[in-house]
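Sorry to interrupt, but I need a hand with the structure work. Could you add the entry underneath, on a fresh line?
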Amino acid sequence: MHREENTLFHMFIKTYEQHKERKAFIYKVADKEFEVSYEKLFEDVLVLSRAFKAKKIEKGSKVMFLCDNRYEWMVTDLALISLGAIGIPRGCDTPTQELEFILSHSGAEFLIVEDEHIYIRHEKMLEHLKLKAIFILEAPKVHSFLSNIYSYKDILKDRIIHTNEVAEFIASKETLDEEDIVTIIYTSGTTGTPKGVPLSHKNIMYNVRELPPLIALQSSDVWVSILPSWHIFERAAEYVALSKGCCTVYSTIKTFASDLEEYKPTIVATVPRLWESMYTKINTALEKKDPKKAKLFNKLVAISAAYNRADRVIKDELPCFEKRSFLFRYIDKTIAFIKRLLLTPLNALAKKKLALVQEKFGGRLRLAVSGGGALPDFLDAWIDAIGIRIVNAYGMTECAPTIAGRALQCNTFSTLGLPVNGTTLKIVNKEGDQVGAGEVGEIWVKGEQIMHGYYQNPEENAKSFSEDGFFKTGDLGKLTLKGELVITGRSKEIIVLASGENVDPSRIESTISMLPFITDAILVGHTKKGLGALIVPDFEKLKEYVAVHFNKAVHNIEQVMEDKQIVAKIKSEMNDLLHQGQGFKPFEKLQNIHFLEKEFTVGEELTNTFKKKRHVIEKKYKEIIDKFIH
């Protein structure tokens, strides 16, 4: 099928021609703000593309790119795209051993690093590789005679653009094809060795075409970017914003809260971990400032959530997995109608007061896209209660990344919405047979956005695709009667107890993390008789809890672990949350818990989108796990 905009470069040229004067990016360097128009972005990309071409980067060249999110990331990415080169992106925190594996496995010929510190960190390893050239994005002039190392300052000395160059640069889009590989992204490896995912223009352009209508995207929309640009979720979001002439503000973890208030975005792309952090920060700040106000705030949230739920029962906006008789539905709707009626005056007050929380997000936020992991139900309900519309999305690197999303066309709460247009999704059992609504099985998908196969990995490819071309996601889920998707876990993360019972850890972890003194938790117990939890505490909150409930002062984690009464009380509170009324089974109770002294950190126990690397954590704490559960 022929399309006018069949590559990312075609899309970029069209945006430049339509939105030259509009702001493309806003970013800060040492507290100084810079604004970039689409015309300036085009010029920067042209000049860098020309410089790369002079250093023999061409169509098909493989270029490793170590950089975190910043304006230069997008300029570099678009320059490589314009040449038909294949970008292999990764974050600055990539360990040397992992970088060496990716460089070797991908056959990269060129390397770009963010700054001199990154280069020095990997210098010894790089000396043994025969790279054609290494470029340092942020550095003084470093090139010397016969050296293959250049800074951007070395290669960008000439920034003059001649009249004929603009036309030639635009015309070069015709040398690119939608089947050309744009990038090879190495998965972050939550379950083992990273796998290379080659994505073509066709794969990524699927997102550019299909997503804007789902979120009613306009050129007037402002995005705040906080996730790593090299990660496919953030990268796709930036391409989608670019395609409509939107403005993207580059932020950081430290400045995110202040940037929301300053730049007043209309859309943000986030991951569940950030919402968990915001939930904890808002509640902790209120508790410290005024415990009475904190209680009032929680009551207002509860009122708003109860009203919203009753409203959804009436409108059939809750997941339904089996047909129910008219009588039962009528009774439920009548009860919900009475509840909503009684809550109406209180809800009006709650919504008015909770609007003040929305000001913390800039006051203009119309959508918050959450991807890169499942959003726990309690967080989904809390965000909804404070009046923020969440687009709960599901995707994978292998799918560039979009599979499904609860966008503006779908209001069924506690789901991931419908598969995106053109995507075929089915739930299958262990035999590969499709199952009906409400039955849990593995999610298989087929569509234009899905890679053809992992790079140089025939063994994984044989396991990852069905005979009829469906990609096996490895995620477990079920469909509602209306076809909306609900994720229930990940097959590779399922804990199998010694009794043979299967346990999905994610739901238990998110439930016990509702306790205010828990920052993070990971469930363990594979092949054991019972379950245990490794807990990363918020120690200040834990000290308060111990002081209130035991009238004791504790100064370190060891003191907490040595006191059997404290541990038993906390374990009991956790198990109270895991009751059958919430859908938990008797064997999903905790046998034991253990508090960790160190937080999980990105690059070690966490991926760049804050997913837990279970295999790393379990290996690191194996001795402890073997001692505290049997």
About this structure: The two ends are 59 Å apart (CA to CA). The longest strand covers residues 471-479.
